[in-house]
Amino acid sequence: MKAVAIQAFGRPEGLALIDLPAPTPAEGQVLIANEAIGVGGVDVVIRRGVLAGYGFKEGHVPGSEVAGIVTAVGDGVDTSWVGQRVWAFTGVSGGYVEQAIASVEHILPLPANLSPVDAVTLGSSGMVAHFALAHAHFAPGESVLVRGAAGSIGIMTVQLAARGGAGAVAVTTSSAERGDRLRKLGATHVLDRSGEGGEDAPEGYDVIIDIVAGADMPSFFAKLNPNGRMVAVGMVGGQPPADFGMTMMAAFRKSMSFATFSADTVAEADRRAVRTEQFAAASRGELPMVVHEVLPLEEAVPAHRKMDAGEVFGRIVLTP
Ligand SMILES: NC(=O)c1ccc[n+]([C@@H]2O[C@H](COP(=O)([O-])OP(=O)(O)OC[C@H]3O[C@@H](n4cnc5c(N)ncnc54)[C@H](OP(=O)(O)O)[C@@H]3O)[C@@H](O)[C@H]2O)c1
C-alpha cells in the first residue's frame, strides 16, 4: 500500500512516498481503508526532528487521525465493525497510509451526514477545545480570549465559547482576512498577535485559552480579570520567558490562575462522549468545519510546506 514516511528529519522534502505491506489487525485492533487523513501540528513538529529525543526515528510514518471504512478486525473485536465508516485515533504515527491500524477503543462510528474529511477536522481539535474550556471553568456570560485562534484548536475554541454563551469572544490573529473569518465563526473582537486593536474589546478577560505561549505570554496573563483563568494548550510561539512566574506573583491580589492543559489527562470514556456529541452536532450542521484544503496523500510535501509557511486556516486533509 501507499504510505508517506519521514525519510529525513528537517524540511518537508524529507517526506517520501513509500510502499509498505498492507497491515493485519492484531487482537483488539481494526484495519481501516482510509478516506481522509488529518494533517496535524504535531506531525510537523515530529517531521522537523525536534522530538527525536523522545524516540522518534527517521522512517517514521506520521499522522494521528484518520477516517474510513473498517475492512478487517483482529481477535476479540466485534465483526459487526466491518463495513462501518469510522473516525480513528492512530496514536502519534501510522496515519499517512492507505490502510491504517487502530485500537478498537480509539474508533468511533461516523453519523451518516458527517464526511470523513470533516471528521478528521473535528475529531481531535474539537475534543481538545472542549476540555480546555472546561479546564478553565468557563461559564456562560464570561469573556473569553483565544490566543492563536486561526489554527484547528483555536477555531473550535471560538465556536464552542460562542455556542456556550460567552459574553465576548476575542481572538488574536495575524490578518484582517482571518479576523473576518473568525467573526463568522463567533469571534466578537479581533486583536493582533500582540493583543492590540479590537474596537471596544473588553479591558480584561475571565478566561484566556492560549495556544501560543512565547515571549508575550506575561502581557496576556496581565489581561485577566480578577479571578480570571489562563489555560495554556499549546506553545506554537515557543516557551514563555523564564520570569513568567514573577508576573503571576506580582498580580497576587487579583486571585488569577494559570494552568496547563493536556488531553492526555482526560479519561478515554469522556473524550469519546464529547466526540460523539460533537460529531452529532456537526452532522446536523450546527458546528461548521473549516477545511483549508484537501490534497492527495502523494502531496504530503506541499501540505507540510503550507503548514510551515503559516498559510493554513483550519485543517489540511490528505486523501489516499
Ligand atoms: N493540549 C493538548 O491536549 C493538545 C493537543 C493537540 C495539540 N496541542 C498543541 O496545540 C498546538 C497546535 O494547535 P493548532 O494546530 O491549533 O495551532 P497552529 O495552527 O499551529 O497555530 C495556531 C495559530 O497561532 C498563530 N501563531 C503561529 N505562530 C505564532 C507565533 N509565533 N506568535 C503568535 N501567534 C502565532 C497562527 O495564527 P495567525 O497567523 O493568524 O496569528 C496559527 O494559525 C501545538 O502546540 C500542539 O502541541 C495540544
UniProtKB/TrEMBL annotation:
Where the record annotates domain Enoyl reductase (ER), the positions are 10-318
For this UniProt entry, the molecular function terms from Gene Ontology, in alphabetical order, are: NADPH binding; oxidoreductase activity, acting on NAD(P)H
**Which keywords has UniProt assigned to this entry?**
NADP, Oxidoreductase
**Is NADP one of the keywords?**
yes
Please name the Gene3D superfamilies in this protein's record: Medium-chain alcohol dehydrogenases, catalytic domain, NAD(P)-binding Rossmann-like Domain
User: Mind telling me which InterPro entries this protein's record contains?
Assistant: ADH-like_C, ADH-like_N, ER, GroES-like_sf, NAD(P)-bd_dom_sf
The answer, when asked if Acetylation is one of the entry's keywords, is no
SMART domains per record: PKS_ER
What protein is this chain from?
A: Alcohol dehydrogenase zinc-binding domain protein
Question: Could you read off the lineage of the organism from its UniProt record?
Answer: Bacteria, Bacillati, Actinomycetota, Actinomycetes, Kitasatosporales
